[in-house]
Design goal:
By secondary structure, the protein is an alpha+beta fold. The chain contains twelve helices and twelve strands. About 45% of the residues lie in helices and about 25% in strands. Strands 2, 3, 4, 5, 7, 8, 9, 11 and 12 form a nine-stranded mixed beta sheet that branches. It starts with a strand and ends with a helix.
């Protein structure tokens, strides 16, 4: 199913709801049973912050073709926090969880979003005016923070999700306050999430950021997808750069700028995330996981796993 929407600065939730026949009740948009289940909801506070909470799944793939037509002077930064809520127990085996990460970009970047079938979307999306971000974090001089607050060109950053962010998002999902206080409470929690996100970004190497054309962003994310699809094969830097139509130094720089890790470090991190999933969810043995991910030396696999998780794979499998 393909949906074409235009965001004129207030989001696309209602257009999405109309397109799939969802029911709107107050601030909640309920996904019809014929399309899946769950809901979207959100809040807006003047021009400072808007937040959309997605907690739903779809039975069919939906392709959203999105165009941004922002008002003159509107300069929002998007913080998309994916996979932040746990899957409901009744859906743990039937549905695929979203990859947990935080994606940060300028709102002015038009995008094409794919919503695969049988995937549970459990995200918090915040659109925050750059002016408001400068008010909150303008005293921070870390290059990554400065680039988000002051960049004139397109940019994209991605980082992981911390336990503190999971806790804060859980507070948003299960608001322990009366409905009359919900808006004020969620705004405070959104600011708390922003603090946790910037805290993670400030742990990166303090390297100057380069502006990125939309084609650069697409190319860098194509490299990420390629790494995900070939976890058993070490990345070929020269080939990846050629496919991205970039020089090797430019590709390495933009990849590390976007993800905070070099290509091989990021690849190894994804391998260990998959190893942890196979050990815990699929209940495979340490040797089965190691060989499945391309390791020929199980001692080496054990050392790499411990470096990334702080625990040996055998012990992790029985936790």
């Amino acid at each position: 199913m393909k949906i074409s929407v235009t965001d004129k600065g207030s989001g696309i939730a209602l257009q999405f709801a109309r397109a799939i026949g969802a029911t709107v009740q107050g601030r909640f948009i309920h996904i019809p049973e014929s399309k899946g289940g769950g809901y979207l909801t959100g809040f807006s506070w003047d021009d400072d912050i808007r937040v959309m909470i997605r907690n739903y799944y779809l039975n069919e793939e939906v392709l959203i073709e999105r165009t941004n037509e922002l008002a003159e002077g509107q300069d929002d930064i998007i913080f998309l926090i994916n996979g932040i809520f746990p899957l409901p127990h009744q859906h743990e085996t039937q549905l695929i969880p979203e990859q947990a990460n935080v994606f940060i970009c300028a709102h002015a970047v038009s995008s094409v979003l794919t919503m695969p079938s049988n995937t549970f979307f459990r995200s918090v999306t915040m659109a925050v005016s750059r002016k408001y971000l400068q008010k909150l974090f303008g005293n921070i001089q870390h290059p990554v923070v400065v680039s988000i607050l002051e960049a004139k060109d397109n940019f994209a950053y991605e980082t992981g999700i911390s336990p503190e962010m999971i806790q804060t998002a859980g507070d948003i999902l299960h608001q322990p306050v009366p409905e009359s206080l919900a808006s004020h409470y969620v705004r405070l929690k959104c600011e708390e999430l922003l603090c946790h996100i910037f805290s993670l970004l400030m742990q990166r190497d303090a390297m100057p950021a380069s502006g990125m054309h939309i084609s650069d962003i697409i190319a860098i994310y194509a490299i990420k997808v390629s790494l995900q699809l070939h976890l058993t094969n070490p990345p070929n830097i020269a080939l990846l750069a050629k496919e991205a139509r970039m020089s090797e130094p430019k590709m390495r720089k933009l990849f590390k700028q976007t993800f905070g890790k070099g290509v091989f470090e990021y690849y190894q991190s994804m391998r260990m995330q998959e190893a942890a999933r196979l050990l815990k969810e699929k209940r495979l043995s340490v040797s089965e996981v190691g060989y499945q991910l391309g390791f020929t030396n199980l001692s080496h696999f054990s050392r790499v796993f411990e470096q990334h998780t702080g625990i040996k794979p055998k012990k992790y499998s029985v936790l």
